[in-house]
Structure formats: C-alpha cells, structure tokens
C-alpha cells in the first residue's frame, strides 16, 4: 500500500478483505526484501487483529474493523521504512516460546536455537545435578529462560552489561512464570561473580559482527538493533576471545562452552579455542542454512 492507496482504503470500491490485504502487502514487502514477505505480512495483520496467524486463513473474506486497519496500515509503513516486525509488534517467538523484545535487545533468531539444542544435549551427558549454567550476554533472556524451562533443577544466571536489556529479560521471566529460576546480573562477563563460583555450562550469543563489516549488514539490523550486542570489535572477535579465556577459568572439569558465531569467523574462533589452555574444541554446529554457526568446547585438565 503506497501512502495514497493507504489513505483511501475505506473509499475503494473493492473491499480490503484479509486476503486482499495479505496479497497486496506480501507483494509490497517482497519488492524491498524477498525473505518471507508473506510471513511478515501475516504476523503484522494477526497482531493488528489480535488473533493467531492461523485464524487469518479462516477469515479471508472478512473486512477488518477500521481501528485494526489503521493500525495495520501504520505498521506496514513502519516496516517498509526498515523497522523490524518484531520491534513493531513487540515480541518474537523462539524455541516455541514468545518473548517480549524492544530496541534494547537483539531479536531472537532461529540460528540461536542451535545453542539451546547443544546445551540440552550437553546437560543430559553431565553426571552431576543440579547444574550451574550461565548465559553471557542474555539480552531478552531467551536462552536462559528456555533452558530454565527445560532444565528446571539447574541454577541459571542471565548476565548482561545493559540494565535495559536485563529489564526486558526480567519481564520475560515473569511472563513465563519462572519466579527466581533465573538469577539476573548486570556484569561484564564474570566481573561481579564470586571468585570461587564455577559452571557446568556457559552459553552465549555474543557480539560477533566486525565493525569492518558494518556496511554489509542489513540496514534493518544496523539502524534498529543495539550495537553493543551486535559488534565485537573490528573483526568481531573481541568478546569471543575474552569469553574463551574466562570460560577456561570458570568451567568445572568437563564443563562445556557453547557460543554462537558468524560463519565468516569460524576459523578464527577455532584458533582462539586451540590457543586457550584448558579448552578443547569439540565441534562446530551448522545452522538451518548449512553454515557453521555454533561452536562447542570442553574444559579439560
């Protein structure tokens, strides 16, 4: 819907049914970004109508009420200018759970679900219980909260340098009725942890984009998502290098470090682990696109 069309929706002879709205908006979004334009249109319209996406398919011939249509029209304009759908509707699904998000936190992405999968597999193989687990750079809390849902007997910490991000994480924990299952801490890595506290699992989606690559990153990411959670120095390795050193000190023997990375820096990440005494790179996990996305290392000796 260009602006002139949007302003005259109510006066068009052909009614703007749900199906017509979806078809037009899908085409409109697809011209700017071919990645799942139909899904983005459906998410916005379902949220504007306050219904589940699946319900749209049973209401194709329905004409939305004027207030919902006005909301949807405004959201389409915002998304067409680059604002991510998740920030517009204020939430994103991750590992079958819904999380509140705003521009203080990264938008959870399917690639990060591989961190969850590897963490759950590692936890099953560990002999002792309960486990001590820390999520470094927790953001919305999606990793820590998801693990808490599946590993209810574990002690879990969610750590971030951003108090605003921790505010979002706490809200999400409350939404998912976790009580005090996750402890939230504002800290630069382990800076504020007791010196003698050790962990069975350290998981992280750290900042791993190099500032040298900023010009190649989609503007919807660079312009809207928090740079402190995106960029890890010139080559994207600053936080990962610090995390590896800290993990070698903070993991129990046999403990596991699991972190997300860019496919572009896989070899650098492996080199860092190889050079860090006490850490042994176990494997690299490919994402749904077949690209190296998650690295797993174990504390030895």
Distance between the termini: 62 Å
Q: Please give the number of β-strands.
A: 9
Overall pLDDT level: 93
Tell me the major beta sheet. 7 strands, mixed
Find the CATH topology of the largest domain: Rossmann fold
Strand order of the largest sheet: 5-4-3-6-7-9-8
From the spread of the alpha carbons, the general shape counts as: elongated
Strands, helices and their partners?
Elements (H helix, E strand, L loop, with lengths): L2 H5 L10 H15 L4 H13 L3 H4 L9 H15 L4 H5 L1 E4 L2 E4 L12 H13 L6 E5 L5 H9 L4 E6 L2 H13 L6 E5 L12 E6 L14 H4 L4 H4 L7 H13 E10 L5 H10 L3 E8 L5 E8 L2
Parallel strand pairs: 3-4, 3-6, 4-5, 6-7
Antiparallel strand pairs: 1-2, 7-9, 8-9
Molecular structure report:
- The chain has two domains: 3-81, no CATH class; 104-299, Vaccinia Virus protein VP39 (Rossmann fold), CATH 3.40.50.
- The strands form two sheets. The chain has a seven-stranded mixed beta sheet with strand order 5-4-3-6-7-9-8, with helices on both faces. Strands 1-2 form a two-stranded antiparallel sheet.
- The protein starts with a helix and ends with a strand.
- It has 13 helices and nine strands.
- It has helices spanning 3-7, 18-32, 37-49, 53-56, 66-80, 85-89, 113-125, 142-150, 163-175, 219-222, 227-230, 238-250, 266-275, and strands at residues 91-94, 97-100, 132-136, 155-160, 182-186, 199-204, 251-260, 279-286, 292-299.
- Strand 4, helix 9 and strand 5 (182-186) form a beta-alpha-beta unit.
- Helix 2 (18-32) crosses helix 3 (37-49).
- It is elongated.
- Mean pLDDT is 93; it is low at 3-11.
- By secondary structure, it is an alpha/beta fold.
């Amino acid at each position: 819907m260009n602006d002139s069309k949007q302003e005259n929706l109510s006066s068009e002879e052909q009614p703007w049914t749900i199906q017509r709205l979806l078809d037009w908006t899908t085409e409109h979004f697809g011209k700017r970004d071919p990645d799942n334009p139909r899904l983005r249109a459906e998410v916005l319209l379902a949220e504007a109508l306050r219904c589940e996406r699946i319900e749209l398919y049973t209401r194709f011939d329905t004409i939305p009420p004027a207030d919902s249509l006005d909301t949807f029209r405004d959201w389409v304009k915002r998304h067409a200018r680059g604002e991510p759908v998740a920030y517009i509707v204020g939430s994103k699904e991750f590992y079958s759970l819904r999380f509140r998000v705003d521009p203080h936190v990264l938008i959870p992405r399917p690639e990060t679900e591989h961190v969850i999968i590897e963490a759950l597999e590692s936890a099953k193989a560990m002999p002792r219980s309960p486990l001590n687990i820390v999520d470094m750079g927790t953001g919305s809390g999606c990793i820590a909260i998801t693990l808490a849902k599946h590993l209810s007997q574990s002690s879990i910490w969610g750590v971030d340098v951003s108090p605003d991000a921790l505010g979002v994480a706490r809200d999400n924990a409350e939404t998912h009725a976790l009580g005090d299952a996750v402890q939230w801490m504002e800290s630069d890595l382990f800076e504020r942890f007791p010196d003698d506290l050790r962990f069975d699992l350290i998981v992280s989606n750290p900042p791993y984009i190099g500032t040298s690559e900023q010009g190649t990153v989609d503007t919807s990411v660079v312009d809207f998502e928090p740079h402190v959670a995106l960029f890890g120095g010139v080559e994207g390795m600053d936080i990962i290098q610090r995390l590896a050193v800290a993990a070698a000190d903070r993991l129990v023997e046999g403990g596991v470090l699991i972190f997300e990375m860019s496919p572009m820096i896989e070899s650098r990440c492996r080199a860092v682990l190889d050079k860090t005494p006490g850490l042994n790179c176990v494997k690299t996990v490919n994402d749904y696109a077949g690209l190296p996305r998650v690295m797993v290392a174990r504390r030895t000796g």
